[in-house]
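Why do we care about 3D structure at all? Because function follows from shape, and shape follows, mostly, from sequence. That is the central idea of this module. The next example makes it concrete: a single protein chain, its amino acid sequence, and then its structure expressed as C-alpha cells.
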Amino acid sequence: MQNKISVSNLDFFYGKAQALFGISLEISEREVMAFIGPSGCGKSTFLRTLNRMNDTIPDTRAAGKVLIDGTDIYASGIDVVSLRRKVGMVFQKSNPFPKSIFENVAYGIRINSLHKNKTDLSERVEKALRDSALWEEVKDRLHTSAFGLSGGQQQRLCIARALAVQPEVVLMDEPASALDPSATQKIEELIVELKQNYTIIIVTHNMQQAARVSDKTAFFMLGKLIEVNATQKMFTNPNETLTEDYITGRFG
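And the structure:
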C-alpha cells in the first residue's frame, strides 16, 4: 500500500513549550493507525497537526514536514478549508449542531456546494448516514432534533457529518471514550468497515480497542514517538522496552 501521510522531523510548540519532538511517521492509504500513550504525551496534539486544527490555538507553531499525497500541508498558500475537507475530524465528545438529524449531515455538503439539487443533497445525506451505520435507526425521524439521539447515535451522526463532505482521511480523537460498551462496539465495527474507503487515525486510551481496530499502532511518550509497528507485533512482541512496560501496565 502506498503512503497517504508522511511526517518527517515534526516539532510542535505551544508558545515556548515544546509538545512534540522530531516526530517521523508514515501512514498507508486505507489503513487504521492507532495512537496510544499516557495522558499528555502528545497524541491529540499530533493528531491535530494532520489537518492543522492546532492553527486555531493562539501562539502555536509547527516545524518539520507533513505530506499528504505528497503535498506539504504547512507550505505557504495551502487552502486550510479544503485541507480540512480532505482530512475530517471526529472529536471525543459528540458535538451535533442544534439542528435536525438531516441538517447536521447536510451542513457540510451545503457550505462546500457539493450537491447539484435537493435530490442530490438527500442522496448524499442518506449515503453518509448509511456509511456511518445510522440510516436504519434514523430514516423515519430525519427532521427531528439531533439531540434526541442517544450518545452513541450522536457520535455516529458526527461521523456521518465528517463523511458527508467526502474526506480521504478521518481523524478520531478518542471517539468512544464517553460511550457505553454496546455503543463502543458499534463505533469499533464501523471503523473496521470504513477503512475500505478511508485512511483512519484514532487516538485511544483503550489498549484493547487499539488491538481490535487498528492495523498499526504508534506509541507516544512525553511528546516523542517511541515505536510504531504492526498492531499485532506491538501488543505481543514490541521492539522497545518502554512500549512493553506501558502495554503491560507497569506505568501510565
